[in-house]
Design a protein that fits this description.
- The protein is α+β, with helices and mostly antiparallel strands.
- The protein folds into two domains: 127 residues, Orthogonal Bundle (Putative xylanase fold); 103 residues, putative xylanase like domain (putative xylanase like fold), CATH 2.30.260.10.
- 39% of the residues lie in helices and 17% in strands.
- The chain has ten helices and eight strands.
- Strands 1, 2, 3, 4, 5, 6, 7 and 8 form an eight-stranded antiparallel sheet that branches.
Length: 278
């Protein structure tokens, strides 16, 4: 059976299972097959995992930016959108694809990986089961053995407390029980000790970053922990950010080094780094 036919048959089977099924458009199917062909041609499965992350992220260069795609359904479900991405779904999709083993069914494992990197314990229950806060997401990725946080001598405490979701998400305003679950999660997050590298120390310490590192950009904004995220990309011994940019309205590579990019945005406080576990 040809690869594209096998892919479509597998996806059709998934859509018939009911319950937790992915929302897959025909365009997403084509993009997924194109990625698999790209991965086979470049033999991505033979690369170290951090290089697989980079090659996968580069595949999506130019993909249009679109925010809020995970919040368009009335009930929480796994959303697959390879056509348009924001900074969060870009990182989700790249990791889910880069973690594909070469011998497994690509559709099943991609969807399983997407659940793992997007939801607590990989289980979709309701809005509260999604990993909304970036430091909570990194905590979960460490617990699952996918990423490890990189500690640095020059890190300092990051003391922002999160509360935005329980206070401002429309679903929380309508559902008191959901709001209580969100408040409990925020309390757990706020009880954890966090450290970050201040943005004025990023450029002097850029040599400690590696291709494919996940860069969480911390924020000074009240109620949030991070305002943006993407991947470290090394070019000519300089670290840039490969990310889904709301300014450029696409997946792009920053035109300036990471430290200079951070300095341009007043609300950017620093970075927390997650490194893929090989």
């Amino acid at each position: 059976m040809k690869p594209i036919i096998a892919l479509l048959v597998a996806m059709a089977a998934l859509q018939c299972r009911g319950g937790d099924t992915a929302s897959l458009s025909g365009e997403d199917r084509v993009i997924l097959e194109r990625y698999l062909e790209h991965a086979r041609a470049r033999r991505i499965d033979t690369l170290p995992l951090h290089r697989r992350v980079v090659e996968t992220a580069l595949f999506f260069l130019g993909t249009p930016y679109r925010a809020g795609t995970l919040d368009e359904n009335e009930t929480e479900q796994l959303v697959v959108n390879l056509r348009e991405m924001d900074c969060v779904t870009f990182v989700d999709n790249v990791l889910a694809l880069a973690l594909l083993p070469s011998s497994a069914d690509p559709v099943d494992r991609f969807l399983d990986n997407l659940r793992r990197v997007r939801y607590r314990d990989g289980k979709i229950i309701d809005l509260a089961s999604r990993l909304h806060y970036s430091t909570d997401w990194l905590f979960e990725m460490q617990r699952q053995g996918i990423l490890k946080e990189i500690a640095r001598q020059e890190n300092i405490p990051f003391t922002n407390k999160v509360n935005h979701l329980a206070r401002h998400h429309p679903a929380a305003a309508k559902d008191a029980a959901l709001r209580d679950r969100l408040l409990a999660i925020e309390k757990q997050i706020n009880a954890r000790t966090k450290q970050h590298l201040p943005k004025d120390r990023v450029q002097p310490n850029a040599g400690q970053l590696r291709d494919g590192d996940v860069i969480l950009i911390t924020t000074t904004r009240e109620g949030l922990d991070a305002a943006h995220l993407g991947f470290a990309l090394e070019r000519d011994n300089t670290i840039y950010l490969l990310h889904a940019s709301s300014d450029a309205r696409a997946v792009v590579i920053t035109t300036v080094p990471l430290g200079d990019y951070l300095a341009r945005v007043r609300a950017h406080a620093g970075i927390i780094t997650g490194r893929i576990i090989e």
